UniProtKB/TrEMBL annotation, chain A:
<dbReference type="InterPro" id="IPR001017">
    <property type="entry name" value="DH_E1"/>
</dbReference>
<feature type="domain" description="Dehydrogenase E1 component">
    <location>
        <begin position="23"/>
        <end position="320"/>
    </location>
</feature>
<comment type="function">
    <text>The pyruvate dehydrogenase complex catalyzes the overall conversion of pyruvate to acetyl-CoA and CO(2). It contains multiple copies of three enzymatic components: pyruvate dehydrogenase (E1), dihydrolipoamide acetyltransferase (E2) and lipoamide dehydrogenase (E3).</text>
</comment>
<dbReference type="InterPro" id="IPR017597">
    <property type="entry name" value="Pyrv_DH_E1_asu_subgrp-y"/>
</dbReference>
<keyword id="KW-0786">Thiamine pyrophosphate</keyword>
<dbReference type="InterPro" id="IPR029061">
    <property type="entry name" value="THDP-binding"/>
</dbReference>
<dbReference type="Pfam" id="PF00676">
    <property type="entry name" value="E1_dh"/>
</dbReference>
<protein>
    <recommendedName>
        <fullName>Pyruvate dehydrogenase E1 component subunit alpha</fullName>
        <ecNumber>1.2.4.1</ecNumber>
    </recommendedName>
</protein>
<dbReference type="InterPro" id="IPR050642">
    <property type="entry name" value="PDH_E1_Alpha_Subunit"/>
</dbReference>
From TrEMBL, chain B:
<keyword id="KW-0450">Lipoyl</keyword>
<keyword id="KW-0670">Pyruvate</keyword>
<dbReference type="Pfam" id="PF00364">
    <property type="entry name" value="Biotin_lipoyl"/>
</dbReference>
<dbReference type="Pfam" id="PF02779">
    <property type="entry name" value="Transket_pyr"/>
</dbReference>
<dbReference type="InterPro" id="IPR003016">
    <property type="entry name" value="2-oxoA_DH_lipoyl-BS"/>
</dbReference>
<dbReference type="InterPro" id="IPR005475">
    <property type="entry name" value="Transketolase-like_Pyr-bd"/>
</dbReference>
<comment type="subunit">
    <text>Heterodimer of an alpha and a beta chain.</text>
</comment>
<comment type="function">
    <text>The pyruvate dehydrogenase complex catalyzes the overall conversion of pyruvate to acetyl-CoA and CO2.</text>
</comment>
<dbReference type="InterPro" id="IPR027110">
    <property type="entry name" value="PDHB_mito-type"/>
</dbReference>
Length: 331, 458
């Protein structure tokens, strides 16, 4: 596969490339394992995999600083791994065990980590966007020099509350980056069938919010765009929109037979635009790593993911008393 | 080591399926992500992707096989260097034990609700004897509560339509912009859904917002954030993160404002675990309960009433006057019947009690004050004494607060009841505009008197 032209002569260190490779591979292998555990009945309900979209969270996390906040929808496993949450805790939440981030009460769609500034994991399409602007509101109110990432998909981009939020975020100059992960399908409805204007990065124009379209399959391009957006926010200029052109390889959720697109379409993206293959090529062509080096990383990741799966299988189910806890915080 | 490939569950409800088609054959190289087979579930035909890499050693279940149970081995994958001869000829006789999580599903019957939140003796007076009292309107009491809490805690702020420069659509926030400035008293555009979400998000990150809805009718635009975002997050996060936020504003009917501005949402919000719900009647309760609401680490829905805003009540002059949630207040003691109400319903309950006294009927009047937690213990104790009960509320009759109280009384005081409980409610119609029709749709003091006479067989 040819190295894409989007990232010109990549100005990136060997260590950074290796880190990108590792982190993206961790997400992909983790998700494949989650799919497998779902197949075995160990994970129930809805399970939305992030396979194909890995470059977005990995690139933006590389641009972010400690204390920056993030919030997303129900397709959230990748975001959690990228911001440093423990794969064991995430996988154990998927299996509904006490060792999960929410003690088994949240599941795939609802996890949080105050420590890593990850604010969920929300199941109502679009609702995380005003919530994310609210995180930025708090930072501005408290005088913190932080930014917040509010992630949403091309489907959510048509929700009314997004535009209410754009208006207030711009009016109040909130330091929030709206990241539109355009994977081209809102469940089974393609962007063309759902959006009167498919250029989602222009959706803030009416509110004076700058935006740009980014190759979301190129982790270097993602990071560069992220740095620009963050600088805009930290300079007090208000929100910024990044439309990440990406692709989801799997169905909307585990039970989606994905009949709305052809197998060839998926295969073509895998063959020509895969984010992990891209970094792999950069590493090999730049002589930053050998096949053997990369195999060793693959092996490490396999161990981490298998350990997470083991932990998720062995962690006990929550005690029945837990049904009645965490409904109210102690006044 | 050879890896068994198991029949996957490909939907939340799938127990078995048809192995419709193999897309690989024995000896094929398998890579991660490759589609190996098509499987028909209870819902659709799904493609089954490989997770592990290797060589297809043996296909154990032929294509076209129906009723293949989830987790049955369907094929064996060989690792680099392994030989197909290592694979047994046929599928293992027994399917492996289902995953432990499935096998040891807990018996739900063992789960038991904890004791009711409230089990306190009858509410004692929160106001020490001899305290100076000052006549205050409900409107002023609410403003004083917010201002006192904002002086006390910099993370508390007020947000809503017309709360700042206009001084509040109903003048509740009069003077607050002047005292606290634009950082903490924030006018919003007319976008309830959006600003309720922003405020809730800010509460996740350390602030304590007070969101004013011009009326709770408009909060219908925002109810997703009140319920899905604010009320459920603490639970969904296993206690890591909650939403300390107050949603307040007018609720219920004013006068002649029609169906879309007159709805009483008391029973709607009272149904939701994770929310606390307050509906005060007097100015003192409005103040003490709003101060508690602002300090509470949970989301609180605080239902006010436009007609009551201008009513004056005695409010204690105290440094820091708060009223705990979940404590009903007995406004007058009586022996013949218990009248239970809250919010503006109390006006009818108290008027009825006065008139009934003239007829020699002694009514005990209980103000619930908070609907969640709800102090049903005080109601039960009162009914054990009076043996009769009438509930009074402005909302609709179906699934009403009164309906819930009736159910509690049936379960906890059945043997004490000398008459069926009667629920006085608004009529089961959208609020009409015409003066005569509106009057007819609303609850009246006469309705309450009639109900009391009925349960006391007078």
């Amino acid at each position: 596969m040819a190295v894409r032209k989007t990232s010109k002569k990549p100005n990136v260190s060997k260590d950074e490339l290796l880190a990108f490779y590792r982190e993206m591979l961790l997400i992909r292998r983790f998700e494949e394992k989650a799919g497998q555990l779902y197949g075995m009945g160990l994970i129930g309900g809805f399970c939305h995999l992030y396979i194909g979209q890995e470059a977005i969270v990995v690139g933006l996390e590389a641009a972010a600083d400690e204390g920056d906040k993030r919030i997303t929808s129900y397709r959230d496993h990748g975001h959690m791994l990228a911001c440093g949450m423990d794969p064991k805790g995430v996988m154990a939440e998927l299996t509904g065990r006490s060792g999960g981030y929410s003690g088994g009460k949240g599941g795939s769609m609802h996890m949080f980590s105050k420590e890593k500034h990850f604010y969920g994991g929300h199941g109502i399409v679009g609702a995380q966007v005003p919530l994310g602007a609210g995180l930025a509101f708090a930072d501005k109110y408290l005088g913190n020099d932080r930014v917040s990432f509010a992630y949403f998909g091309d489907g959510a981009a048509n929700q009314g509350q997004i535009y209410e939020t754009f208006n207030m975020a711009s009016l109040w100059k909130l330091p929030v980056i709206f990241v539109i992960e355009n994977n081209q399908y809102a469940m089974g409805t393609s962007l063309q069938r759902a959006s009167s204007s498919p250029e989602l990065w222009t959706r803030g124009a009416a509110f004076g919010i700058p935006g740009e379209s980014v190759d979301g399959m190129d982790v270097l391009a993602v990071k560069e765009a992220g740095e620009k957006a963050i600088a805009h926010c930290r300079a007090g200029k208000g929100p910024y929109i990044l439309e990440m052109k990406t692709y989801r390889y799997r169905g909307h959720s585990m039970s989606d037979p994905a009949k709305y697109r052809t197998r060839d379409e998926v295969q073509k993206v895998r063959d020509e635009r895969d984010a992990i293959e891209h970094v792999r090529e950069l590493l090999l062509q730049g002589k930053h790593a050998t096949e053997e080096d990369l195999k060793a990383i693959d092996k490490d990741i396999k161990v981490i993911v298998n350990e997470a799966a083991e932990f998720a299988k062995e962690s006990p189910e929550p005690a029945l008393e837990e049904l009645w806890t965490d409904i109210y915080a102690e006044a | 080591m050879a890896t068994e490939i198991l029949m996957p569950a490909l939907s939340p409800t799938m127990e078995e399926g048809t192995l419709a088609k193999w897309l690989v054959k024995e000896g094929d190289e398998i890579t991660s992500g490759m589609i190996m087979a098509e499987i028909e579930t209870d819902k659709a035909t799904m493609e089954f992707e490989a997770v592990d890499e290797g060589t297809m050693g043996k296909i154990l279940i032929a294509e076209g096989t129906d009723g293949v149970k989830v987790n049955t081995p369907i094929a064996v994958l060989l690792e680099e260097g392994e030989d197909a001869s290592a694979v047994p000829d046929s599928a293992p006789a027994s399917t492996p034990a289902p995953a432990e999580a499935v096998a040891s599903a807990p018996a739900p019957a063992q789960a038991k609700a904890p004791v009711p939140i409230v089990d306190a003796p009858p509410a004692e007076d929160e106001i020490p004897a001899g305290t100076e009292m000052k006549s205050t309107t409900v409107r002023e009491a609410l403003r004083d509560a917010m201002a006192e809490e904002m002086r006390r805690d910099d993370t508390v702020y007020l947000m809503g339509e017309e709360v700042a420069e206009y001084q509040g659509a109903y003048k509740v926030s009069q003077g607050m912009l002047e005292e606290f400035g634009t950082r903490r008293v924030i006018d919003t555009p007319i976008t309830e859904h959006g600003f309720a979400g922003i405020a809730t998000g800010s509460s996740f990150a350390g602030l304590r917002p007070i969101v004013e809805f011009m009326t709770f009718n408009f909060a219908m635009q925002a109810i997703d954030h009140i319920i899905n975002s604010a009320a459920k997050t603490l639970y969904m996060s296993g206690g890591q993160m909650g939403a300390p936020i107050v949603f307040r504003g007018t609720n219920g009917a004013a006068a002649r404002v029609g169906a879309q501005h007159s709805h009483d949402y008391a029973s709607w919000y009272a149904q939701v675990p994770g929310l606390k719900v307050v509906m005060p009647y007097s100015a003192a309760d409005a103040k003490g309960l709003l101060k508690s609401a602002i300090r509470d680490p949970n989301p609180v829905v605080f239902l006010e009433n436009e007609i009551l805003y201008g009513r004056s009540f005695d409010v204690p002059v105290m440094e820091d006057f708060t009223i705990p949630f979940g404590k009903a207040k007995i406004w007058r003691e009586g022996s013949d019947v218990t009248i239970v109400s809250f919010g503006i319903g109390m006006q009818y309950a108290l008027e009825a009690a006065d008139k009934l006294a003239e007829d020699g009927i002694s009514a005990e009047v209980v103000d619930l004050r908070t609907l969640r937690p709800m102090d049903t213990d005080t109601v039960v104790r009162s009914v054990m004494k009076t043996n009769r009960c009438v509930t009074v509320e402005e909302g609709f009759p179906v699934c009403s607060i009164g309906g819930h109280i009736s159910s509690v009384l049936m379960q906890q005081a059945f043997d004490y009841l000398d008459a069926p409980v009667i629920n006085c409610t608004g009529k089961d119609v959208p609020m009409p505009y015409a003066a005569n029709l509106e009057k007819h749709a609303l609850l009246t003091t006469a309705d309450v008197i009639g109900a009391v006479k009925s349960v006391t067989y007078r």
